[in-house]
Design goal:
There is one protein chain. This protein is α/β, with parallel strands linked by helices and about 300 residues long. The chain has one domain: Thiamin diphosphate (ThDP)-binding fold, Pyr/PP domains (Rossmann fold). It contains 12 helices and 9 strands. The strands form 2 sheets. It has a 7-stranded mixed beta sheet, with helices on both faces. Strands 6-7 form a two-stranded antiparallel ribbon. α2 packs antiparallel against α11 and α5 crosses α12. The structure holds thiamine diphosphate (TPP) and magnesium ion (MG). The site of thiamine diphosphate has 17 residues, from β4 and β6. Magnesium ion binds next to β6.
Length: about 300
């Protein structure tokens, strides 16, 4: 059964250095507040393309991006959080979602295919087949021997080409950190209904270190720092998607809201005064991004 505290390190917010705890929170807030603005933009009718929200899952990319800076990233379709956490420009992401030529792919790809080749960030987006980014990531790591991050969902983990890529990476000891954002859903079907096996067990059987854990960001940070030195390795991270598979709708309360848990952890660690200021600054910044988007749409420029 899924639980919010699987393998979670107790008092993680107090264990990691303060600047790191706060930076992870800043990145969580960036994605959460960007997605809040996007939800409003969809309601207001100026984003009309399909959107795959990272809401609820923000802590994974936020913690990974601090723990493992600078890898070449091969992202999946639910990738706003990865792009924003790794330092992608929110204005370019907004423009992509608005279908503008100033977007990350000239406004032609949309939410599920976000690219970044700026500010030292190299992120390749998704093309349509779930999990196709995983063999491409493995091929890239084989050719380049560079630190590579392959992020995919629990549904994508079932694709034959994903499983064989894990085997290939294990055989050739390639520098890939595989991260499965396990929100327990492939569109609407739960993991338990779809399969009897765990991707972590398969990866371990291939001969790489593999862990299951919940999306507590401090635990992800500590574990990712350790595993990136032992690649290939896999992290299967339990998390909760707050919105529909695609679109802004919801199906009632989530099992857990990591954003609230993180706030409480920061309060417990005596960091709330600083954290609150960070949250306010990110919210202000992302509200401006979306206000300007609306003005751009209204002015037609
Ligand atoms: C090969 C292939 N099969 C099916 C689909 C349709 N499809 C798109 S997203 C998705 C579910 C993906 O689930 P998961 O990988 O867990 O990611 P999540 O949406 O939960 O983040 C499916 C089945 C597809 N795009 N490609
Ligand atoms: Mg899923």
């Amino acid at each position: 059964m899924r639980v919010p505290d699987l393998a979670v390190i107790e008092n993680g917010a107090a264990i990691v250095p303060e600047d790191i705890a706060l930076e992870i929170y800043r990145r969580i807030c960036r994605t959460r507040t960007f997605e809040e603005g996007l939800i409003k933009a969809v309601k207001d009718g100026f984003v009309t393309s399909p959107v795959y929200l990272s809401s609820g899952q923000e802590s994974i990319a936020a913690a990974l991006s601090v723990a493992v800076p600078g890898p070449v990233i091969f992202a999946q379709h639910r990738c706003h959080g990865v792009y924003l956490s790794y330092g992608g420009d929110p204005v370019k992401l907004r423009d992509e979602l608005m279908g503008l030529p100033t977007g990350t792919s000239g406004g032609r790809a949309g939410s599920n295919c976000i690219q970044c080749h700026e500010n030292g960030v190299v992120m390749h987006g998704h093309h349509g087949l779930i999990g196709e980014n995983v063999p491409i990531a493995v091929g890239y790591a084989l050719a380049s021997k560079k630190s590579t991050l392959a992020i995919f969902g629990d549904g994508a983990a079932e694709e034959d080409y994903v499983l064989s890529s894990l085997g290939f990476a294990a055989t050739h000891r390639l520098p890939v950190l595989f991260v499965c954002e396990d929100n327990n859903l492939s569109i609407l079907t739960a993991v338990e209904t779809r399969r009897s096996w765990k991707v972590s067990k398969v990866a371990a059987a291939f001969g790489m270190e593999a862990v299951d854990l919940s999306d507590d960001p401090w635990t992800i940070f500590l574990k990712a720092k350790e595993l990136v030195k032992k690649t290939p390795a896999l992290m299967n991270i339990h998390t909760c998607r707050a919105n529909w598979h695609v679109g802004i709708g919801t199906d009632g309360p989530v099992e857990w809201d990591r954003f609230l848990d993180v706030r409480n952890a920061l309060k417990g660690a005596g960091l709330w005064d600083k954290a609150q200021k960070i949250e306010e600054a990110e919210r202000f910044c992302m509200e401006k991004v979306w206000e300007q988007g609306q003005l751009r749409r209204l002015s037609g420029k």
